[in-house]
Amino acid sequence: MQPITRDHLLSLKAQTDEKTRLQNIQGYTQNIYQQVINTATTTTQTRYQVQIPIHGQFSARDNMPDILDKLRGLFPDSRVNFKALSRGVDGKMYDIVEIDERMKPFVNTQFNQEFIIIDWS
What pTM, to 2 d.p., does this model score? Predict the structure, then answer.
């Protein structure tokens, strides 16, 4: 057996959590990658959109910067974006990430839907 320092013991949980987080990001992006390839192979669509689940053991929302970076690396000349859509009082869906601050009171954020969109058109 090898001696282990107190600092090393204190860091083990964080190391394990980070390893799990990176594995989850890898699995999540791999699934999207496969779906994009399937869409491009079997349809004439030039865009794939996946809704981000609100609940679950892995929070895609909390890891969105890393997920988007990985997808942008996998699809370097495609547009890879995150969209958060909410329904306005007029019934239309609006991207609340890009919406003007003056319009936000007219949008019902109770039913937000978040998407990753990959566009290769």
Answer: 0.79
